[in-house]
Design goal:
This protein is an alpha+beta fold and 284 residues long. Among the domains are: 68 residues, no CATH class; 123 residues, no CATH class. 36% of the residues lie in helices and 16% in strands. It is built from 11 helices and 7 strands. The longest helix is centred in the middle third of the chain and has 21 residues. 28% of the residues are buried.
Amino acid sequence: MKKPRTPFEKAIDFIEGRITEKEYLSEKTRDSAGREILDRQDLPLLKEDMSLFRKYLLTLSLQGRFTILLRREFLGMPQTSLVDKYGINKDKIRILKGQHHPSKVNKKVAIRPINSNQDLSNELLANLAIFWRVPISWIQPGTPEQSWTIDHFKYLPDPFFSVEQFHVYLNQTEELALKERIKIKHTKPNHWVYDVRGVILKISAHQNIYLRVAIWENGGFIIEIFSINNELNDFVTLKEILQGYGPLKVGYCYTVIKNRINIVIIAKSRSENFTIPNEVRDFN
């Protein structure tokens, strides 16, 4: 009897064109009792090889890309949390995946609103690009750019923070995360992010640092430098600013852009159980 192909092997079949996107996305994996396994077992393996993951994303159609990237493995939180925390209309999520047409719904939000009233607003796409650590063109119609960019930060509402405002944001959001953790009941143990935000940190008239800030439900945060120029200088400045949130670790992340590596600072802060994601490589 022919051995069933693993989810990872099926992903390779899709990348190499041996099966269609529809066939690949409709594949279901089941455990020994016949129950469907909701987590896609191929995604962690694909993410381990950024060159392969880049090819994988580029092989997907735009709607297929959204279908995969909107999974909790890439959001860092369940999709329901994305909707509840930022007031994103569920219809917009369906539109991104090619499943639905829009209807207006006003909803109370838990963290801050992300404008999604306009069909596929620039603000919505810019925020998602920061969640997923990709240039915005990778989630827009057309050919994805093959260079790193921070142009989409201009679509974010109020991205500029002084150093003092940045400290207030980190402290207040971590405090909220720790309070909410007590109320949250996940179906299985996991390490989820509480908030992901694009920040332009104003150091001086001549220095702005472009950041992706991820604050964890269990406390602590990972701050990734998105800046295009002067990354080393930005790193030295940022590490000094974060000294009060130690212990600190320094790492790096590969990106979907070939030869683009982002410096990361991991701050344990008030976390008692901080797990570094697999995609963050440790310098220490």
